[in-house]
Design brief:
Chain lengths: 206, 98
């Protein structure tokens, strides 16, 4: 085989690899969701903690979590539809949506009755939320083979254990720190990482 | 000397190869997305997709989204097998060079 023919075949192989990767890249660019939900958690915590001293609409503090979570869900769906509406579905994308949506539903189904019935002890509540977020982040990191997200899962699991053994104040501090590290910091890291990937990718047309 | 495998001429075209590779990574994709990813013209892209459809490597589904027509392409099992065989043939031809 001549050198030219060999080079052409190598180019074909490289084209296949680039295009397969290009098709699969559609699942990235989700860092902003972590930041959005981090802010939503902080809003819900602030509203439920200081709502009574604030304006009249904020005094229904028991609505803080359901209203904020529903608003954050609606905003996520709206922004995701605008951002990824035209992108083709991938198996990995469907797996990711499935685990996060399932976690969201489980949390809603569990927390709403607990809030209404008043059977919620804060340390246990924080531990349950942290453990659920830990398992979802771990599953997501294993699907994406993305180790930094597994570090987030470990932080959530540690927060769950710390919350059970700590006082109410310590549990609150642990929750706030875990949100900051695993939602805000990790989300911003994700956004920077994705922007770097997009820049690296450049044009890979056939 | 062992006989070298032949490369499938339907897949060997650069744009058709790119299209099949793109479709192998997604469940289905619309015409606009494929055009953006390949940087091809509408006419050329339509012609190459038709060849892949005639070979049974992709299926086409047309629908309306917010009153706008959308054409969706999905890779068939036959297409997946053909691409896999093409890659194997390519590797065999290149042999120790890769």
């Amino acid at each position: 085989m001549t050198t030219d023919a060999e080079q052409e075949l190598k180019d074909r192989l490289s084209l296949i690899e680039n295009m397969i990767a290009e098709g699969r890249r559609t699942t990235s660019s989700w860092g902003w969701v972590f930041v959005l939900w981090g802010v939503a958690y902080y809003v819900a915590i602030a509203w439920s903690t200081w709502g009574l001293a604030g304006p009249i609409w904020s005094r229904n503090y028991y609505l803080a979590w359901p209203v904020t979570m529903i608003a954050a869900s609606a905003l996520t769906v709206f922004l995701a539809a605008r951002k990824f509406g035209r992108q083709p579905p991938t198996t990995i994308g469907r797996a990711m949506s499935a685990i996060w949506v399932a976690m969201g539903i489980s949390m809603f189904v569990l927390l709403l009755p607990l809030g209404i019935s008043g059977k919620s002890e804060q340390q246990v509540l924080v531990a349950v939320i942290a453990a659920m977020l830990g398992s979802t982040n771990a599953a997501s990191s294993m699907i994406l083979k993305w180790m930094p997200q597994f570090a987030c899962a470990i932080v959530w699991w540690l927060a769950a254990v710390a919350s059970i053994f700590g006082s109410v104040t310590q549990s609150t501090v642990v929750f706030l720190v875990a949100i900051f590290l695993c939602q805000i910091v990790f989300g911003i890291y994700g956004m920077i990482f994705e922007a770097h990937l997009r820049k690296q990718r450049g044009g890979s047309h056939a | 000397m062992p006989e070298l495998p032949e490369l499938n001429p339907v897949i060997h075209g650069k744009l058709r190869l790119a299209l099949l590779s793109l479709l192998s990574g997604v469940e289905e994709a619309d015409f606009t997305w494929l055009r953006t990813k390949t940087g091809s013209t509408d006419g050329n892209l339509g012609a190459q997709l038709l060849k892949l459809e005639e070979a049974g490597y992709v299926t086409v589904k047309k629908r309306f989204v917010q009153r706008k027509p959308q054409t969706l392409y999905r890779m068939t099992e036959q297409g997946r097998t053909a691409l896999s065989e093409y890659v194997q043939a390519l590797r065999a031809l290149l042999g120790a060079a890769i």
